[in-house]
Specification:
- This protein has no helices and eleven strands.
- By secondary structure, it is an all-beta fold.
- Strand 4 and strand 5 form a beta hairpin.
């Protein structure tokens, strides 16, 4: 049974930092692309960052502020978020997809709330 469990969300002031973690089990982690998505109230879920064997990608809105990383020995993926802005407020989801040419992210966590106050 595949499980992705996010943690680390919370309330932070603008300019602050948070580090999200995602614990993954039930799949061969090193063969999977991992990503973070977010969904703000009333909006669609959108891509934030991904880490694959071949590269790391970021949404333009978070480049230079967020850093995605993974620890294949611990089956963990992280999202370090610095210089947070109120518009970063959202539920953040961890996702996994087989690391193919175009990964299909078909395993998801339950999400963790990030709230940035102005």
């Amino acid at each position: 049974q595949v499980q992705l469990v996010e943690s680390g969300g919370g309330l932070v002031q603008a300019g602050g930092s948070l580090r999200l973690s995602c614990a993954v089990s039930g799949l061969p982690f090193s063969f999977y692309a991992m990503a973070w998505f977010r969904q703000a109230p009333g909006n669609q879920r959108v891509f934030v960052a991904s880490t694959r064997r071949s590269n790391i990608r970021y949404a333009d809105s978070v480049k230079g502020r967020f850093t995605i990383s993974r620890d294949n020995a611990k089956n963990m993926v992280y999202l370090q978020m610095n210089s947070l802005k109120p518009e970063d407020t959202a539920v953040y989801y961890c996702a996994a997809g087989l690391d193919t040419l175009i990964p299909k992210y078909d395993s998801w966590g339950q999400g963790t709330q990030v709230t940035v106050s102005s």
